[in-house]
């Protein structure tokens, strides 16, 4: 595949123009122009994805058949009523996972600043862990994680 010198040169010129524009924006004292690259990075993917979806909708083939219009779930054919109740254990485990996952997120600021926090921070984190351990012991005693029942 041959790429003409004019195409390469035009790309280089466009790149240099954009690069010099962003350098001027970065060096200018106007703080609102500093957000322009972020705005471009937000708008460009939205326009690109929207354009691709629109073009495939307009130009894509439309071959509807009975087989394509059937419900499909992960390669498994559906059976029974989808409205049957689900065991509450799944929701309980999901909530517990989120709870203890968020606990780990709160350890990160302590790990970053543990020297500046000193003993006061250490005691605060020990209290934090103790509260969650109390909750975990309560969950175990209530049998929330027993699946055999």
Q: What brief labels describe this structure?
A:
149 residues; mainly alpha; Methane Monooxygenase Hydroxylase, Chain G, domain 1; 2 domains; 4 helices; flat
- Please compute the radius of gyration using only Cα atoms: 28 Å
Beta strand %: under 5%
The count of strands amounts to 0
Question: Could you list the spans in which at least 5 consecutive residues all have pLDDT below 50?
Answer: none
Can you tell me the overall shape?
Answer: flat
Secondary structure category: mainly alpha
The run of helices and strands is HHHH
**Helix content, binned percent:** 55-70%
Number of domains: 2
So how many helices?
A: 4
Largest sheet: none
Report the end-to-end length measured between terminal Cα atoms: 67 Å
Description:
With 149 residues, the chain is an all-alpha fold. It has 2 domains: 1-84, no CATH class; 88-142, Methane Monooxygenase Hydroxylase, Chain G, domain 1 (Up-down Bundle). 68% of the residues lie in helices and 0% in strands. It is built from 4 helices and no strands. The chain has helices spanning 5-27, 36-59, 88-112, 114-142.
Quick recap of the structure?
This protein has 149 residues and is mostly helical.
List the helices and strands and how they pair.
Blueprint: H1 5-27, H2 36-59, H3 88-112, H4 114-142
Helix pairs in contact: 3-4
């Amino acid at each position: 595949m041959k790429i003409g010198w004019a195409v390469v040169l035009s790309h280089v010129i466009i790149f240099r123009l954009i690069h010099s524009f962003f350098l001027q924006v970065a060096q200018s004292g106007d703080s609102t122009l500093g957000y322009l690259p972020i705005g471009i990075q937000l708008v460009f993917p939205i326009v690109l994805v929207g354009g691709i979806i629109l073009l495939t909708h307009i130009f894509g083939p439309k071959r509807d058949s009975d087989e394509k219009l059937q419900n499909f779930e992960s390669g498994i054919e559906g059976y029974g009523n989808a409205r049957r109740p689900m065991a509450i254990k799944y929701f309980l485990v999901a909530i517990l996972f989120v709870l203890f996952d968020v606990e780990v997120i709160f350890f990160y600021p302590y790990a970053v600043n543990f020297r500046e926090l000193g003993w006061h921070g250490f005691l605060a984190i020990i209290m934090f862990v103790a509260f969650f351990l109390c909750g975990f012991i309560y969950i175990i005693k209530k049998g929330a994680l027993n699946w055999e029942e």
